[in-house]
Amino acid sequence: MHGGNHDRSAGAGRPRHWWRPLATATTVSPQRLVQVVLGLIWLADGALQLQPFMFSHGFVTGMLLPAAQGNPAPVAGSITAMAHFLEPHIALWNALFALTQVAIGLGLLVRRTVRPALVVSFAWSFAVWWFAEGLGGLLTGAASPLDGAPGAVLLYVLVGLLAWPRRDEGAGTGATRGGLLGEVGARVTWAVLWVGSAALLLRPGNSGPSLRNTLMAASTGQPGWYSSVLTGTARVLGSHGSLLTLGIAAEMALVGIGVALDWQTPRLLGVATVLAALIWVFPEGLGGVLTGQGTDPNTGPLLALAGLAWYRSSPDPAVARVVVAAVPAPTTA
Question: What is the pTM of this model?
Answer without folding.
Answer: 0.81
